[in-house]
Amino acid sequence: MKKGDILDIEITSSGMEGEGVARVDGQVVFVPLCMPGEKVRVMVREVSKKFARASVIKVLEASEDRVYPLCPIFYRCGCCDMQHIRYEKQKQIKKANVEACLYKALGRKTEVNDVVGDGRLFGYRNKIQVPLAKVAGKVVAGYYKGNTHKVVPFAERVREDLGACVMYERGMQDMLDAFLRYADAAGLDCYDEEKHAGFLRHFVARKVGDKYAVVVVGNGKKLPLEKKLIAELTNTGMGFSLYFDSNTKKTNVIMTEDLTLLYGEARLTADILGIKAKVSPLSFMQINDGVRDMIYSEVAERIKKSGDKVVIDAYSGAGVLTNVLAGSAEKTYGIEIVPEAVADADELTRDNGNDKKVVNICGDCANELPPLAERLRKECAGFTVVLDPPRKGCDERVLQAIKSVAPRNVYYISCNPATLARDLARLDDDYDILSVTPYEMFPQTKHIETLVCLERKHMMISN
Q1: Angle, alpha carbons 312-381-460 (nearest 5°)
Q2: Beta strands 449-456; 409-414: pairing state
Q3: Residues linked to residue 370 through DSSP beta bridges, in sequence order
Q4: Is 415 considered catalytic here?
Q5: Catalytic residue of the set 77, 190, 365, 415
Q6: How far is it, in rounded angstroms, from Cα 322 to Cα 331?
Q7: Mean of pLDDT values over 4-8
Q8: How far apart are CA 208 and CA 278, in angstroms?
Q9: Percentage of the chain exceeding pLDDT 70
Q10: What is the CATH number assigned to the segment(s) 99-117+288-456?
Q11: Cβ-based neighbour number of residue 418 at 10 Å
């Protein structure tokens, strides 16, 4: 097999990236936009010792699970991975991927629950960040074509309740349309990353409650004709705050800390399961409000039923989950390494009247968790640790700390099945897996959020 070969192959399984997988003379071939049971004609794009990658020329025999994508630019845009797959099949593939990761790491089959979600297959994103380009003299927004930095402009809306990108709702689109009208009227050009020239880089918007935080990212120090943009956004009839982000660096990073409020409130208020959180454009928030609330509610309910009176929320960020869990315990500790996030967590704790129930600790979880947990082990009958790490998973020192102080219950929230499985293998000698539930945080994409509930195998006696 060599680059450029044209092959007719059969797809036999799905990969972790949502692509089809075939074998040709013993060689694994990954083919995006295909699924098991299909026969396809492909062109080989890359060949290595371990695998090859190919792209589809023609579907010769389609699976009964292949559907027509709702988005008209799906096959050219690099945003979604699975719109061509019947939704029930999407869930089956994601569940199987979680099972495969666990089997590889643990060496045994682990029962995984069916994928659950809040019922929204489209229009679920509360945030968009889209690159901008000039096409036929007009500023357009879209997403990058896969593995490139070439913008594929959005098509017209296909449903009244959705945006041009079907992953977000129409209010976000109204904000984007208002911005595009302003950009053309102001005669603004768009950024060319090769020349490091041009002004408009990205449009970012997040829905917080019933208002929108709108950010224009530009290669300059000031947004021209800002009052004109404020007027356009005001004409939508929706509440908003407007910011300008000055990003003059040669970088792929979308937003910087150089953020200026141009209109409205500096931070908008979100209600998350009764917790009021002030959100800035730089705050981390899950992009699917409904599924986030499902996961947080499940963890809170399990803690309440367990009888544990104390909770440690590791990787606690700005403290939203920490404060949600305060309703299920007598004392909740949040550990976070970023000082600014801890300051936000302290403010959030005060605003929600949880000063006596929540303690926010600034420091490396690997350093702060062991002494805290050791003290709690001696002081209370049982305590819980909640892990919600970044995509790379837990620091090994954090897992060693959990093993050494042995909390009764551990709840692990993960956006990466591979690192989740790796970390569970490190805890396997000490903890039983009670349940594994994948949550549909990102319908139509390869991504999956997973909640794993763990219980200590051997009870330890306090000194």
Answers
A1: 95
A2: antiparallel
A3: none
A4: yes
A5: 415
A6: 10
A7: 95
A8: 9
A9: 99
A10: 3.40.50.150
A11: 17
Please tell me the distance from the alpha carbon of residue 348 to that of residue 335, in angstroms, as a whole number: 15
Q: Looking up tokens 């800002």, which residue turns up? A: 226
Q: Which residue has the tokens 């950010």?
A: 215
Q: 122-142, pLDDT tens digit by residue? A: 999 999 999 999 999 999 999
At 235, the amino acid letter reads N
Reported confidence tier of residue 460, pLDDT bands at 50, 70, 90? very low
pLDDT, tens only, 236-251: 999 999 999 999 999 8
196: left (phi over 0), alpha (psi -120 to 50) or beta: left
Q: What is the DSSP string of 12-47?
A: -EE-TTS-EEEEETTEEEEETT--TT-EEEEEEEEE
Q: How far is Cα 425 from Cα 419, in angstroms, rounded to an integer?
A: 10
β strands within 239-294, DSSP E:
239-246, 259-263, 268-272, 275-279
Which part of the chain is CATH 2.40.50.140? 6-66
Rg (CA), the chain: 24
Q: Which of 342, 320, 338 is nearest to 270 (CA)?
A: 320
> How far is Cα 223 from Cα 326, in angstroms, rounded to an integer?
42
CATH of 127-266, one of 3.90.1570.10, 2.60.120.200, 2.40.50.1070, 3.40.50.970: 2.40.50.1070
Q: What is the CATH number of domain 6-66?
A: 2.40.50.140
Q: Is the pLDDT of residue 217 over 60?
A: yes
CA-based nearest residue to 332, from 303, 305, 297: 303
- Residue extent(s) of CATH 2.40.50.1070 domains in the chain: 127-266
Q: What pLDDT, on a 0 to 100 scale, did the predictor assign at position 322?
A: 97
Q: What is the mean pLDDT of residues 63-91?
A: 93
Q: Which residues pair with 218 in a beta bridge?
A: 200, 246
Alpha carbon distance, N-terminus to C-terminus of the chain: 65
Distance, CA of 232 to CA of 245 (rounded, Å): 19
Confidence class for position 459, pLDDT limits 50, 70, 90:
low
Query: pLDDT of 324-336, one tens digit each?
Result: 999 999 999 999 9
pLDDT at 379: 83
* b/e burial code for range 368-391 (CB count within 10 A of at least 16 → b): bbbebbeebbeeeebbbbbbbbee
The torsion of the CA quartet 239, 441, 31, 37, rounded to 10 degrees, works out to -130
